[in-house]
Amino acid sequence: MARTSVVTGSASGIGKATRELLELRGERVIGVDVHDAEVVADLSDAAGRTALVEGVRRLSGGRIDAVYAVAGLAAPTPATVAVNFFGTLATLEGLRSLLSGSRAPRAVLVSSMAALLPSDEDLVALLGICDEPAALARAEILAKEPETTGALIYASTKLALSRWVRRQAATPQWAGAGIPLNAVAPGIIATPMTAELIATEQGREALLKMVPMPLNGIAESAVVAKLLAWLGGEENTHVCGQIVYVDGGSDVVLRGDSVW
Ligand SMILES: NC(=O)c1ccc[n+]([C@@H]2O[C@H](COP(=O)([O-])OP(=O)(O)OC[C@H]3O[C@@H](n4cnc5c(N)ncnc54)[C@H](O)[C@@H]3O)[C@@H](O)[C@H]2O)c1
């Protein structure tokens, strides 16, 4: 029987490329997004997160094989905290029980190499204890200076997501239930999220200084989609709690000998 996969952020960029690749491989995809999706849901709030779980339950008949949590924002605003961190957790935790009927259940989220860039310690700590009201309040303060402190919000959400994967993957709920839980950490990918930043040579150069990509430079969404599809596919039986960098080498350049 064809696999049924849920892809959030399916209307654009990496989510759209993932959806297209899975469909090409004969899978059924239930897309989730704020527009142009089977389940239209806003993952920034409780009502949208409930709509996601109910919508997927209804459309799938209660059994899915993989969850790809891709939806995200990069704006220096509290909404980025709500969608990137709490929306992603709500997706994975809310849909986990629907994976129990699959013979090869899988879960993958999209973090970022930005987890290696400067972040806000207080915000990361609040995300570490999953305190959404306090995290949103902290982001509100950071957002007052969009260019400086606001810019730390995105990296903080991705660092916290990567840590969440590490903390959760080996637990009874995930590994113990036979579900590999992993993340990908892309470098710069050409999507609507980065379009403005990489539209000019000057913009590209400035971004590549921060995110060096010696191997093949800025990538297309399909590059990330192929890795996601492998981590979320049947072949992946033993990759557990990994943050797989698909970043043209930025992790290597920035972290060097830090092998873990
Ligand atoms: N593009 C990059 O360079 C890059 C690098 C590293 C990580 N990422 C991550 O990859 C993921 C996908 O980003 P992308 O580059 O494809 O961006 P994108 O803007 O093209 O797509 C993001 C999708 O998420 C959806 N989304 C946003 N807010 C939502 C909400 N509240 N509820 C439901 N859906 C919502 C959007 O509607 C959109 O379809 C994000 O998590 C992003 O942080 C992107």
Automatic annotation (TrEMBL):
InterPro entries: NAD(P)-bd_dom_sf (IPR036291), SDR_fam (IPR002347). It comes from Sinomonas terricola. Transmembrane segments: none annotated. The keyword RNA-binding does not apply. This is SDR family oxidoreductase. The keyword Oxidoreductase applies. Belongs to the short-chain dehydrogenases/reductases (SDR) family. Keywords: Oxidoreductase. It comes from the Bacteria.
